[in-house]
Here is the input.
Amino acid sequence: MTSPPPMLERLLAPRSVAIVGASEKPGALGASVLANLVRNGFDGAIHLINPKRAEIDGRPCLPAIADLPLGVDVAVLAIPQAGVVPALRDLAARGCGAAVVFAAGFAEGGPQGLADQHEIGRIAAASGMVIEGPNCLGLVNHARRLPLTFVETLVPTDGQRHGRGVGIVSQSGAMAAVLGTTLMSRALNLTLSVSTGNEAATGVEDYVEHLVADPGTEVIAMIVEQFRRPQRFLATARAARAAGKLIVLLHPGRSAAARESAATHTGAMAGDHPLMRAMVARAGVVLAETLEELGDIAEIASRCPALPAGGTAVLGESGAFKALSLDLCEGLGLKLPALDDANAPAVRAALPPFVAVSNPLDITAQGLVEPDIYARLIRALADDARFGCIVAGIIQTDAATCAIKLPPIRRAVAEAPLAKPLIFAGLDEGAGIGADDRDALRAAGVPVFPSSERVFRAIARLAALADAAGGARTPAPLALALPAAGGVIPEYQAKQLLTPHGIGVPSGRLATSADAAVAIAAELGVPVALKAQAAALSHKSDAGGVILNLGDAAAVRAGWARMHADIAAFDPALRLDGVLVEAMGRRGLELIIGARRDPDWGPVVLVGLGGVTAEILHDVRLITPDMDAAAIIAELGRLRCAPLLWGYRGSPALDVTAVAALVLRLIDVLAGTPALREVDLNPVIVHPDGVVALDALMLADPAG
Here is the structure.
């Protein structure tokens, strides 16, 4: 690892360390930090502070921070919460460069704790001191064998680690320690592990920026519960992608209630967690669903010569395993290109005549009779351009069986390194392969897993990375003249604003009397629909505010009377702007298309199955503002209802190009109208020859 930037240098690569709250008691935080430094051979100055001890383990103790020499690089605060803020003030006065705060009880501890946390941030800003935490477990600079943590740590030497460098950044200290232990047990080349805790002064974005700039780190594994600076993280993620580095993120919170929306379906359906996922994935981040997946993806990215891309080849030894793999990969959306005698002559030549060519391959027990078959097949599959990854699902059984199968697999990668990933997946966890075989495969760039299911899931997550890379577009801003008062903009006004920009709506006008409604219906031609209009009536159908298919003047008058009676019963205080009279249109597929400006993540458009059941079925995709039409159409293809768009059981294909154009227009409207918070079009009727927005609602901030 190269030297950190000046802001982090004194925290991540200190030449002097002070332990405030040093102790000789086994298990005490201060004692554990000192033991870690000694155990890992830290050769810089160590200053111990404990007013009750003159020395600890033969090292002198200072009575107070005020007795420290000026300019100590980093102080580790192994003291209770009540003493943290005074200690930081004293450290700032001594010119200390950085501090690690273990203590909890700040923002999570009530109003006083929150005030103390704000004071920590103020001290950091005023003094220039870098502060990690509070409520963190510290850090381990593996590249320098420097643990500033109370978790007992022995950093492996360089000879014990393989693969491209992996950095860990986690808000949770416990999970950082767990992930670090996991990856060290796999002999991966860790560079830095940082837990950021409550992030009073520095956050995940600071450390990820450092790791993106560090030439020794190529994979960054993150555990984040809340991005406090989302736009900065997105910029850093895009920089990582441009630099050829991979960020893998585990973000809890899928089950959390979405932020409440003032008026529209879109705000409720595009909740914080789905929106975060869409934005970071588009920026090139790979999302893990579990802690196990996070480690698995990081290992493949670190150890393999390239990331899995394109199709996956599966080498197996069982027909049942073949069937199970097909089921699992189909569910994961993992592509397994088909093989047969005609399109895979090299594979055919590597197999005996009685073994069929397929993907997954089932070589039966032939490998025990003819072990070289493994090497031949791995080479043949590696030379096939349809595959970007090979999974060897091997039955291990016992040491004797492994002694037959493993040497030719090792030979296949030792004779000439593969340009694409080969991943070893043992099928019978507990049998295990020998340590020599495992270590040799790892050193050759072959991850070794005890489960094929884990491998397939990790590859599927990585394969999604390619989908996020293409289809870029810069929005062309369109400005709407919004009402100065802001708030909810009802349907009739929203349609007036959107129609000039090419968003199609039914023909119609606002009526303020039954006579006017009858006259408008006569002009439009029956049948017509009546829709009550008021800013306070966001969901009209709930109040009886929508009546359809009125076929003559008498029906329009009766509908007018019934609607007003129903609305009066629903809310006697509600006053309507009028009633929108619209021509009934053709039937088609109902979609919801909504745009939202999130205060943290920025603009996003939601597309999905619409109508009154939209929030029940929740079949939606989120479109980021940098997507072009092709990328939007690809997202439409990932809806569960996608077959209905492309034609289902003889029905015609619908105009997905027009859907994409409507989405692009909403992106442009958001880009050009900063006061616009949300637009909700539900339903949008999709026909074979275009789209029509039947309903529209907007939410805007007041002018100025």
Summary: The first helix runs from residue 6 to 12.
